[in-house]
Amino acid sequence: MDSQKLYEQRNKIIAAFLVAAFIGLFNETALNMAFAQLIVDFKTDASTIQWLTTGYLLTLGILVPISGILMQRFTTKQLFNVSLLFSIIGTVVSAISPTFTLLLIGRIIQAVGTAIILPLMMQVILMVYPINQRGAAMGKIGLVIIFAPAIGPTIAGFVMEQFSWHYIFWISLPFLAISYALGLKFVQNVSEVRPVKFDVLSIILSTIGFGGVVYGFSISGKLGTFFTAEVMGSIGVGAIAILLFCLRQLKMEQPMLNLKVFTFPMYNIGILMVIIVHMTILATMVLLPIYLQNILLLAPVIAGLLLLPGGVINAFMAVISGHIFDRFGPRVMVPVGLLMEIVALIALRTIDAETSVYFIMTFHIMMFVGISLASMPAQTNGLNQLPRNLYPDGSAFMNTLQQVAGAIGTAVSITIMSISTTSFVTKNGASSENEFTGSILGVQHALTFALVLAVIALVLSFFMKRVQEDK
Known about the structure:
Layout: H1 3-8, H2 10-30, H3 35-41, H4 46-49, H5 51-63, H6 67-73, H7 76-95, H8 100-128, H9 134-162, H10 166-170, H11 173-186, H12 200-223, H13 229-251, H14 265-295, H15 300-328, H16 330-348, H17 357-384, H18 391-428, H19 432-461
């Protein structure tokens, strides 16, 4: 299909991707609300059930890097169809699962679909939208990437109130079917297929590397410490494998992922901003529900509803910020957004047992408005600097590191919270009062970690320059 027809149908093409990606990322967090019930149903413990999230994130961390070569070897329609089939099959398997093992398998199959659709969607946007309209288009992606996991626990809370956890998956199926139907009718091939070879050693190193890092940080969250042989060994082996993977890519004529993307300074700043902001998002998304339920003793549904306005407003702001970016660029809006996020985190790290829920809701909204002004504009500006032949590699790296950052942000925040709580109880004596106070301190210290990340992102934002011309 020629460029003019692609341009005319771009909104229909993107609609299919947005629905599929929304459900994929919704499933990333929705099941968290059902963990307590799953422990009872499967007669197991929390550390085992946690693998339903860890396995999902591990699959994303392993497969998203490979997406760069998949997008060069197969057509857009082929990858879209395969992605939706994996998502649908995984959702059905999860919905009917009578055992923990089958549910875990279903989750992994789901994650395969999400791992393909995310970078593919980003590449399609880069191909079908001109540079002066990409901000608005990427704003729609921002709506999905931030809003879907944010609203997941809220919707799941309502589902659990009326039905069983199986229906968390059943409600996803109609939307996947709609996305598949839209894709069959509207999705077009947007890039040329090249006979790129699969390098088995690169795939192995990538799998061990990103999988090892995600696994190591994930288990640190459950163990409550970074300093165990299993955690440090997994992260160490993963880091070495990533280094070897990068060295191999530099020596290959046709690398699996082209490291030349890192020769573009705005792309580097963009990817660092994405990493930091996504760590902050996932850290607060896991900390605030814990605080609302364990400290303020609110029911899961109420806790979910309190955090819903931030997600809803962020969804609208993501689109608005895209249009602002197209008109004015990132130089002002990104620092302003990060300043809003910093002010909100300074306020949120003061929360205690007496804090008003309206105080939390207000600054949660402020934080997400700030994130919407900073995240996608920085990402779009970075991708805009890449030449067209590097779009698949740039999208794959950005999505990979975003998922890895989310897993790390979640794990580090939980680990900091656990260490702080344990330290306070050990120092002041084991009692219900001290455990309660220690839990408050734990949340405060973990939010301080998110605040430090936001300050680093603000410093980086001052080095951003608008990319003016398409290469």
